[in-house]
Every structure is written in C-alpha cells, then in structure tokens.
Amino acid sequence: MAINILVRFNPARPKAGEEVRVQIVAQHPMEPGTRRDSSGKLIPADHITEVNVTMDGQLIAQVKPGPGTSANPLFAFKMKATKAGQLKVTCKDLNGQTGERTADLTLA
Amino acid sequence: MVRWVVLALTWLLPLVKAQGVDFDRWYPYAQASQYAQSHGRILVVYFWSHACPYCDQMNTFVLSDEAVSRALVRRFVVASVDSQSPEGRALGAQMRAFGTPSFVFLVPQGGTWKELGRLFGSRTRAQFLKELQEICTKAGGEGCG
Amino acid sequence: MDRRKFLKASAGAVAGAVLASQLTSALAQGGLEGEDIANLEKGLQQTLGKSFKDLTPSQQVKLVAPTIAESGANVPVEIEASLPADQVKAIHCFCDKNANPLLFSVVLNGVLPYYATRVRVAESAPVRAVVETKDGKFLLASQAVRVTVGGCG
Predict the structure, then answer these.
(1) Which residues in chain A (46-105) have CB-CB distances under 8 A to chain B?
(2) Second label for B116, Cα 20 to 30 Å away, from A80, A98, B50, C120?
(3) Interface contact flag, A70 C73, Cβ < 8 Å
(4) Contact C152 B65 (CB under 8 A)
C-alpha cells in the first residue's frame, strides 16, 4: 500500500516574497523496532527513511527521519514564496513502500 | 519415509517447545502462571490498556531495553493482561490492580501465590531494572544480576 | 491587594525570576537534566564524525521543545537558525538518552533554515539541535525535556 502524504501551505496563497510554511504529514506508524506488542514480541522496525521535497523539479530539502520520529510524522519547512510552482514530496520506508504527492503553490 | 519423519516431528515439536519456552515474550495469564510453576519463575502480571500513553512508554522504551529484557528472561515470566478485557477486569479486581501500567510479582507457594511486590505507573529503565533486581533478590536464588 | 503588598509580591517575583534565569544559565553550562554525553557521542560520531566538544553552542540556533512532555512518543521540536539561508547546509537533531541518539537529519537547499517535526524521547534528557553550516561549523542548541512518569487510573 502506498504511503499517504498530505501537504498544506500556510498561508494557503501567500503574497509574492512572503514567507510560507510547508506542512507535510505522512500516514505511517514509524515503528521504531523497539516496541513490544501485546504478546511481548518486538514489532519489526518499519519507518520512513527518506523524504525528498522538490520545487519545479529542483530538490529543496531532504529528510532522513529515523526510528526517533513519531508516528504519522510531520515534516515542516519554511520558504520564501518568490514564484508559483509545483511542490512534489516523495518518500520511502524500510520495507520499500513509497508515497508521492504534488501540491501547487499559487500566489495571491 | 518422509511420512514417518513428519509424524515424528509433529510428536516431537510440542515437547521441544515445552522445554525451550521463549521467555523473551509474554503469555496469556493461564499459560504464564503455568510456566511460572513448571519452570520455577517469578510471575509478573502486567496490566496494560491500549489508551494509556504510559503503557506505550513502557512498551517502547523500558520493556524492550536490553538490560531490562535480559533481567526478565533470566528469572521472570510475563503475563500480559489487557485491563479492559473481561478477563483483565476480573484479574484486576482479584489482585486489586486498578490502574495501568501495573506490575504484580508473584511466586508459587504451597498451591497458592505469594505476592513479592507490585509497581504502579511508568518508570525509567534504570529504576525499573533496580526494582526487578530487588524483587528477584526477595525471591532468592541465583541470577538476579 | 494594597500597594505595599503588591510591591512586596512583585519584588519577590523579580527576585525569583532573576534566580530562575541564573539557574537556567548555570544549567546551560553543563548538567542539563538527564544528560548522557557518552551515549550522545555515539550518535555524533556515527552521523557527523564529530565529538561533542567540536560543537559550538550558539545563540543563532533556536530550539523550541516543551520542557515537560506528557508522552515521550510525540514531542514537538522546532529548529530555526538566524543565519542566511545559503549558509546553512543541514540540521541534525539528537537526544542524549535514546538508544539511537540520532532523531533526524535534514539537508536544506533553497528553503529557509527552519525545520519542525515530532520526535520520540525515551526518557527525561536533553534534545540537541545541531546546525551544520556550509563552511563546516556545527552550531548547537540544547533543551532539556522532562518526560513525565505516571499511570492511568
């Protein structure tokens, strides 16, 4: 199953040159590999290992979250909204599952 | 020939398992209390609930810690009890364990159980380890670490 | 409350505040609650190939994390550097007492020197934000996070 990703800009439609916060949330259990289930067995590690964020094809941020990042993780950045463009987020986890989401940044 | 091997295995496997019980995992109460008696181990009745973040904290960071796991494997057997289940509510009332996480330590004695101690609430790895050692020392014998 | 009482109370509050700020600065010198440099060192060496003494505590790094967290499973952290965006290469974050001290690494390239996420903290310990600059400096900000212990009724 693909990893579901949500992207939100705050403000949703910034003015040119304004600071915009990019909030990315992935729906993922981020199992650290140290959690015991109800029968005391260790749940195998299963967490996102890489998140890539591009703007119009150019890599602007890369996150390497480890077992230390919480379940359903938030990844938030700030950028200057100089021009409209397409933001693309891709991610992959330890089991080779991947996720992808694009969001259009439009200016006010 | 193959059939004989398979037949022999199906007979032998339960025996092998019964002798080599995996004490790095937890069991339902009935099974754990039986292992405590047959293997001369300290029974830890662990009451937890899904909604309690302090249980999650114990499960993620304390009960999986290497030193804590080693101490438990050496002398204990853990009974995993969902405090919200009908069985869990009955056991909780019987043992007067009303919150989670709770750990009740018991040893078999003359057909009944003797309580060695109990803990309520989450704790740090170092503290839990110290408390396990104290309980183990109370029970006597080797391997309390 | 009459004026005199008010003055007394506010004088007390000011003295308290001064004491508190002295205490926090004393703690910042070392001796944060739950500090475990030996364990932290593992993560620093593995991730950055650096030692704790190679990091420079800096006012230019702002780390926002709660001083008390109800659950270690979900602790919000926010890191911001007051440096030009083109001078910051990456942001790393560690926690002294986690079995795996590295919480995350982020490489930034064209976004502002800022990152926010939520992390797992094993038990009361300092969280460390390390900002790696393009000219090879490692700037540090630390914040002790106390994870409450307790139970559910």
Answers:
(1) none
(2) B50
(3) yes
(4) no
